Amino acid sequence: MKKMNVLKGLLALAVVFLFAQCTDNKGTSTEASAPAVAGTNMKIAYVEVDSLLTKYRYWNDLNELMIQKEENIRTTLNEKAKELDGEMREFQRKLENNGFASRERAEQENARLLQKQRDLQLLQEKLYADLQAENQKNSLQLRDSINSFLKVYNQKKGYSLIISNTQLDNLLFADKSLDITQEIVDGLNARYTPSTKK
Fold first, then answer.
1. Per-residue pLDDT tens for 71-126?
2. Cα–Cα distance between 185 and 143 in angstroms, integer?
């Protein structure tokens, strides 16, 4: 679970940087909805990234899928570890009771069990590396989804700058009238069609 929390944290950080990149002002139209910065024509808004992630159905579906995959990995590894543990206890019992026909046979069984232990460790590393790679791919898809939406959204709104905010880490104070989080969430969710395969 710690690995998922770390991955979630990295994803949130990636989204923070995402909003810094999403200030493309190609098709600007002037609307009175967003205040301009005093003395300039800049229109600024911000998005609460935490709220965005908790309300964006695409992210929630991805997150649920990744939690399920991590749980499946954990179950698989626990079953294999339990099986190996049983075999090791049986080996120890046989060794203590002279249950092997020869010393060579006991050494062969010990080598087999050690190899099985190494294989289990390699499997664990592979499964978690695959999970991390998929999580990174999902992060990129999430970023691309938000980026492409913001480009279309900003053609109508004409913001010069859209700032991300994560639990007040980046933004110490802002007028709530500059918060466009709900607009972004509504727009993203409106164009999201959940996949039927899970």
1. 999 999 999 999 999 999 999 999 999 888 899 999 999 999 999 999 999 999 99
2. 14
